Amino acid sequence: MFDRTPDERERVRCAMTIDRSPEDVATLWRRYAQDAPGDDELFAFKQILETGDIVLSDAWVNGASSRHPAQPDAQASQAATAHSRTDTSEIGGSAA
Amino acid sequence: MKAACWMGKKHVEVVDVPEPRILNKRDAILRVTSCAICGSDLHLYNGFMPTMEKGDVLGHEFMGEVMEVGPDVKNLKVGDRVVVPFTIACGNCAACKAGMTSICENSNPNAWLAEKMLGHSASGAFGYSHLTGGFAGGQAEFVRVPFADVGAFKVPNDLTDEQVLFLGDIFPTGYMGAEMCDIKPGDVIAVWGAGPVGLFAAASAKLLGAERVIVIDRLPYRLEMARANVGAETINYEEVDVHEALMEMTAGRGPDSAIDAVGMEAHSANHLLYAMDRAKQAINMQFDRPLALREAILACKNGGTVSVIGVYGGFIDQFPMGALMNRSLRIMTGQCHVHRYMQPLLEHIMAGRIDPTFVITHRMPLSDAPKGYDMFVRKQDNCEKVVLKAS
Strand B188-192 to strand B153-154: parallel, antiparallel, or no bridges (unpaired)? Predict the structure, then answer.
């Protein structure tokens, strides 16, 4: 998904700015994304274009399959590069 | 390494956790020298912020020495002494380029989660729930700093930790609260809350030219700090009616601007209203207790500015929208865009126009963090600000 020429990246980057309509963004995204576009992919793509990397949460590096505390990784060799979205019922969470 | 971890409501422990390491190319690892407990940490402590996990490393006010940098960090080197903003910002997105780093579009890995609650995500933040990215905090011996090339702010070696530590949050937050009031000569600024942020808002209002600053709280020692250190007039809301007192002090006009430096856990002398807000909060009918905010809106002069820097998390009930609309009030708010204030506020410190250490009442080792939280939340021993020495 991120293996694009600089020109292609620039066109998609421009499409993601506030100067373009959402329809333009969606059209360009559909044209340039090989996989079905999803919010995660769009966000990751934007992060790479604008920051050069996908920003990793300290919580993810303890494993991507379930919820973890925001701590340094317990096992340095198991850095996660993606996370799985847990059910949104966690909003409201475990604070109480 | 040792770190202060959130283990549940009103339960903080200092435990051994693995040391952080570089995860992204623009990360740095700091050895934390000093950190502090923020009033907004108490919202986590009291269980009011969602998406906390048992074991989360706390702390978003910290500074230290650079121990390691990622390959894309070109402006820092090992040994640099830095203060870090509590918000994490990429420096490259539209928001960062506009100077609004607390709404950075790229730094919250859990943006999707924040969007569910807030409509759009704000930036990532250290040690402040998974809604802001699940980043480990700085109440620890070491901390990972994402986008360190943008955030980590080098400070002169001839200033002490305590002189510069608050550049990462509470001083800029208070300053932004005052700046949003667009203060003119002769203005009267009322500040709800004499916690550290409220005191910095009051001091900043003076720096920005306010003629009078009135600070409202219920704790006599805090009001004394406002009088002694800021030259503020004060109102104890447990002794007088705040609205009536403000009208008397401003010839019936109200303060030109009202700053809410209290946020979601406000108290009130109006016991019925307070009880209703607490009950609604307890059964999730509202997320926050907006007692100070309501009072600020109703007291502010017609056409004035209500500046909100106290932290709110969700929805509130009985919001006086009618007063806002019909009286041409202006609301200004936001998490502080710390990055843009660090250099100018450092210059204020270096010039001797303000000494931020006046808010510090307690100093203790990191290992005493649980005691610090307990003292701060109970306001014991005239506790205003706790600084923890991490190493």
Answer: unpaired
Are residues B316 and B254 part of one domain? yes
State the complex-level ipTM: 0.84
Give the H or E element holding residue B82. strand B81-84
C-beta atoms of A60 and B9 within 8 A: no
- State the number of CA atoms in the 13 A half-sphere of B134 facing the CB: 29
**Chain A contact set for B22 (CB, 8 A):** none
B90·A61 Cβ contact <8 A: no
In a domain, A89, yes or no: no
A1 domain-assigned: no
What pTM value is reported for the model?
Answer: 0.88
Question: Quick one: closest CA in A to B284, which residue?
Answer: A92
Between A40 and A13, residue with greater pLDDT: A40
Distance from CA of B93 to the nearest CA of A (A): 6
User: Residue A46 and residue B55: Cβ atoms within 8 Å?
Assistant: no
One domain, residues A13 and A47: yes
Do B175 and B148 touch, CB atoms closer than 8 A? no
Q: Which of A39, A50, A53 is nearest to B105 (CA)?
A: A50
pLDDT at A82 over 70: no
Q: How confident is the model at residue A80 (pLDDT cuts 50, 70, 90)?
A: very low
Instruction: Provide the token pair at B58.
Output: 């706390």
Both tokens of B360, joined, read: 């510090």
Summarised one tens digit per residue, pLDDT across range B205-264 is 999 999 999 999 999 999 999 999 999 999 999 999 999 999 999 999 999 999 999 988
Considering only CA atoms, give the Rg of chain B.
20
On chain B, the residues whose CB falls within 8 A of the CB of A45 are none
Enumerate the residues of chain B whose CB falls inside 8 A of the CB of residue A72.
Answer: 17-21, 57, 136, 142, 144
Closest CA in chain A for residue B134: A70
Label residue B10 left, alpha or beta by phi (over 0 means left) and psi (-120 to 50 means alpha): left
Residue B341's domain spans which residues?
A: 2-169+336-389
pLDDT digits (tens, 9 = 90+) for B34-57: 999 999 999 999 998 889 999 999
Give dist(CA B36, CA B166) in Å, integer.
Answer: 8
* Residue A62 belongs to domain spanning: 54-84
Considering the domain architecture, whether residues A12 and A28 belong to the same structural domain is answered as: yes
